[in-house]
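hiii, so i know i said id send this last week but things got crazy w the move. better late than never?? heres the sequnce for the chain we talked about at the cafe, plus the structure i predicted for it. fair warning i was half asleep when i ran it
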Amino acid sequence: MSCSTIMAIVQENRTETAIHVQDVLTKYGCHIRVRLGLNDSSVDQCSNRGMILLQLCGEGLELEEFEKELKAIGNVKVKHMTVEF
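okay and structure toks below
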């Protein structure tokens, strides 16, 4: 199984989308090798916008379904790339 897919998930409104995104991440959890959460924050303020970076393991159809489910959530943007050396 290949683990060469990197996916970026941007949540424009984390307070509304986080639960739905987390449900999808849990459903496809066996395909997630690395997860890194980032948010736009400063010392005195936490932003409602956030990004999750994933390293994914799996085949094309499984990962396509994963991405499709994430994109179906309002205010969520998804991009991915395959890195092969």
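btw Residues 14-27 form the longest helix (14 residues). thought thatd interest u
miss u guys!!
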